[in-house]
């Protein structure tokens, strides 16, 4: 198994990307890391580490697409960028199983769609991160979290099918799929929600359970939450911001008094466990559902721990053939013909 890694993608590249890759190699065997980017720089950075040289390859790419560039234009004008070179290799080389990048989200999405290609019959791919819930044994998928700001009913129906297939690949039996809205009642929601709700109820092959409110995403009652990319991106960033703010508030209150400090000391291990569960650095990145191979988009600010998690995530998803299972699910599920 070979995992392509964008060595020059992200705020902390290439140092943290290379460090995270080495950590992933140390933690798990059975795969080769292919670092994509400026070869001489990568070689120089690697010289600081002791690692199994038989498990690391370098794919030279002299250009870098930055987050300031317009994604579609950059992908077309920079064929020698790390993102474009990686996608070309992923498409043309059967040995390459997955691609991980913390670089420009737009460029990764455009590259995955134009260079790698969508699953046949799919209208639009979607970003689908895995989120923790109040139940340590359960996780929830949020699809779409930012790839498609404006959607049609057919897009949300296909997101539901893909999310369901993703959850099944993770071992969830008959995953519950819910539609993000501003209320659980059928009459709530905007025009898109009103159009897609009855269609989802009629779609055979998914376990659709109705609407869900934003406050219930992390409650563990459902396995997949679907929405347009605008609402999904607002939701996931609101969740991240709320968790960060809550942790800061708790720390402030704990250190504000002797009793607080004493209680904090007693609960230190509990807080550490909770922080580990909530920290996105331990969860890797968002899977780009709907393209022909595994593509993981890591957070732009990812450091070595997050890169390691994203690489191991790519290995896991390639082993469990998520992309293939999504395609099979899309072929088998019957979406009403009248949906547009």
Task: Walk me through this protein's architecture.
- The chain is α/β, with parallel strands linked by helices and 340 residues long.
- It folds into two domains: 1-122 and 290-340, Isopropylmalate Dehydrogenase (3-Layer(aba) Sandwich); 125-280, Isopropylmalate Dehydrogenase (3-Layer(aba) Sandwich), CATH 3.40.718.
- Helices cover 45% and strands 17% of the residues.
- The protein has twelve helices and twelve strands.
- It has helices spanning 15-27, 39-46, 71-77, 82-92, 105-116, 153-169, 191-202, 229-254, 258-266, 268-278, 304-319, 322-332, and strands spanning 2-6, 32-37, 56-60, 96-101, 126-128, 130-132, 139-143, 176-181, 207-213, 224-226, 286-289, 294-297.
- The strands form two sheets. Strands 3-2-1-4-12-11-5 form a seven-stranded mixed sheet, with helices on both faces. It has a five-stranded mixed sheet with strand order 6-7-10-8-9, with helices on both faces.
- α3 (71-77) packs across α5 (105-116) and α6 (153-169) packs across α7 (191-202).
- The longest helix has 26 residues, at 229-254.
- The two termini are 39 Å apart.
- The mean pLDDT is 90.
């Amino acid at each position: 198994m070979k995992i392509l890694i964008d060595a020059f993608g992200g705020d902390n590249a290439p140092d943290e990307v290379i460090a995270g890759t080495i950590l992933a190699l140390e933690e798990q065997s059975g795969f080769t890391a292919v670092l994509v980017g400026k070869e001489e720089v990568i070689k120089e950075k690697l010289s600081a580490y002791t690692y199994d040289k038989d498990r690391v390859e370098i794919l030279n790419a002299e250009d870098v697409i930055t987050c300031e560039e317009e994604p579609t234009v950059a992908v077309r004008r920079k064929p020698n960028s790390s993102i474009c070179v990686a996608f070309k290799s992923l498409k043309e080389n059967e040995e390459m199983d997955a691609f991980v990048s913390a670089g420009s989200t737009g460029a990764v999405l455009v590259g995955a769609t134009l260079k790698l290609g969508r699953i046949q019959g799919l209208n639009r791919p979607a970003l689908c991160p895995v989120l923790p819930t109040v139940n340590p044994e359960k996780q929830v998928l949020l699809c779409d979290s930012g790839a498609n700001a404006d959607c049609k009913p057919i897009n949300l129906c296909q997101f539901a099918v893909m999310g369901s297939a993703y959850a099944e690949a993770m071992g969830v039996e008959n995953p519950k799929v819910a539609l993000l809205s501003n209320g659980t009642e059928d009459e709530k929601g905007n025009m898109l929600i009103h159009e897609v709700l009855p269609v989802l109820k009629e779609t055979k092959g998914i376990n659709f359970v109705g609407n869900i409110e934003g406050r219930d995403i992390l409650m563990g009652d459902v396995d997949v939450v679907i929405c347009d990319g605008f609402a999904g991106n607002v939701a996931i960033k609101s969740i991240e911001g709320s968790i960060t703010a809550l942790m800061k508030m708790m720390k402030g209150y704990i250190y504000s008094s002797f009793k607080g400090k004493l209680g904090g000391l007693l609960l230190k291990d509990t807080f550490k466990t909770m922080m580990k569960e909530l920290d996105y650095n331990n969860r890797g990145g968002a899977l780009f559902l709907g393209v022909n191979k595994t593509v993981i988009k890591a957070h732009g600010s990812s450091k070595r721990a997050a890169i390691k998690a994203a690489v191991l995530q790519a290995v896991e998803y390639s082993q469990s053939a998520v992309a293939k299972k999504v395609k099979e699910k899309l072929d088998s599920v019957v979406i009403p013909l009248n949906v547009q």
